Amino acid sequence: MEIKWEYTRKRSEFGRPYNFSDLPGEVTVDIPPDPSLADDFIPQDPVDVAIQEGPVMAVHEVNTEQVQVTSRGVNHVEGGWPKHVDPRNQDMTTRFREEVERDETYIRSILRLSTLMEHCIRQNNAIDIYEEYFGEDEEEEEQEEIPSAKTICVLRDPNVVRRMATHLSWHPDACKEVAVAYCSLDFQDKRRDMSFDSYIWDLENPYKPELTLMLSSPVVTLEYNPKDWHHVLGGCYNGQIVYWDTRKGGLTIDVTPVELSHRDPVYGAIWLPSRTGTECFSASTDGQVLWWDIRKLSEPSERLVLDITREDQLKNALGAISLDFSLSMPTKFLVGTEQGSIINCNRDAKTPPEKIANVFNGHIGAVYAVARSPFFPKVFLSVGDWTARIWSEEILDSSSIMETKYHTSYLMDGCWSPVKPAVFFTARSDGTLDVWDFLFHQKEPSLSLRVSNESLLSLCPQDNGRIIGCGTTRGTVTLLEISSGLCTLRKNEKSLTSTMFEREARREKILQDKQKELQVRQQLLAQAKKEEKEDPQETFEQVRAEFFSIITAEKRRRKGEPEEVPG
């Protein structure tokens, strides 16, 4: 027997909303206090109870585990061919292509697609889809943007004994990797277990170095080869020059012999634009500039002694602590010295003394950085002591055309912006990064950012000028992304900067000419005084006569007698 129950209800009553109403309070249970039960309880003070919805966990339980990312390649094989066609056989693939191209279906498809493509091309030529209708308004909005910067990545020295990040070099292709030179520049640093390795970092995996560059002496500087990206050049603390091929791992390919290398640390090593892409040159505090070819590192191809007396004596040479080379002037290079001088050298000169073209003096201490402007080759920047200065090669025997204020802390490095002609960066020993824009502010930086508690030691911007790397004395490299207003070239900015530099150069030249005129006038006056031989007796008699004439005139005035008028 089937048991069933039919429940009938109107459809309008299904899903009917609830109706709530306000009712007065109603006492359900009333338990009066019983004083006799008070002896069974213990009073609690305070009566605060912490209630947390989530579980209370320790720090090591909350933090997630660090994810190790590895890069692995994938081999792509050409596909899409029929089974009877071997893609590795060029004759078979060519024959198959010719058969397909003669097929009527293929021809009809190409004609149909070409008509559609032709229509799109004509439409694209008729209408500029990238046209900016309100470019001026957008430019005004960009000018009002407040300069800022944010940290996007931090690279730390993986060793327990921390060293200084002395130099940075970006990979020439898309700047996805950065080579960092780690070295302790402290005199006679004898800390135990100090590593000599430097590293190449991948920005997508900042927790582990992409490649470890191993060698027997720490490197002070590293540079990627702009012509062959796999070659990395290094200048060592013991004066040797080394290079690596990143395709073959972190072991050095070749190294210069100690007896023919520099005698002091190599503070600058730069690739030269040669046909083979294998030439480079280096500078050191031993007072020498050496040219090398990595195909033959057994001896230098050329040598220059930085003797500003032009006697070519190594004992009189100035120690080089910074080096700069620009592709816009392939025969010239700049050297910053420990003594505060900047030497402008010309490699094409016939004799070594003639290679030292000009010497610029203006810094009190060592010139830690010197950089030629990427927009105006005759203008260069120098950083030393407490200030940064801008110089012009056209004005030789004078001071800089522009300079920053004197800071309370030392300036350790500086560089130009690769995209804006009037913007440059300076690093200070108190961990502050200054961004200067001389078109808007000459007395104060446009942006000052405290990057680290340690001293900043090295700077290197990317080619797009948006990201800049800052190395510290503790081996930490901080990558900063600056705002678009400091890395976007505005309209007429290059011409305005050129006008400003020309005006300052002209002003400095006028002051220089006036100073020369004053010097010549002082020399003529000194010479004239020497020629005039005064007789002391004659001078005495003249002064005596004037004295008594004054006394006689005073006596007559008191007696009321008329004064004698000299006829």
UniProtKB/TrEMBL annotation:
Coiled-coil stretches noted in the UniProt entry, renumbered to this chain: none
GO MF, any single term: dynein light chain binding
Localization per Swiss-Prot or TrEMBL: Cytoplasm, Cytoskeleton, Cilium axoneme
SUPFAM superfamilies: WD40 repeat-like
Keywords, comma-separated and alphabetical: Cell projection, Cilium, Cytoplasm, Cytoskeleton, Dynein, Microtubule, Motor protein, Repeat, WD repeat
One annotated Gene Ontology cellular component of this protein: microtubule
Record-level GO BP terms: cilium movement; outer dynein arm assembly
Entries under InterPro entries matching the protein: Dynein_IC, WD40/YVTN_repeat-like_dom_sf, WD40_repeat_dom_sf, WD40_rpt
Family (UniProt): Belongs to the dynein intermediate chain family.
Protein name: DNAI2 protein
Organism of provenance: Campylorhamphus procurvoides
Gene name of the encoded protein: Dnai2
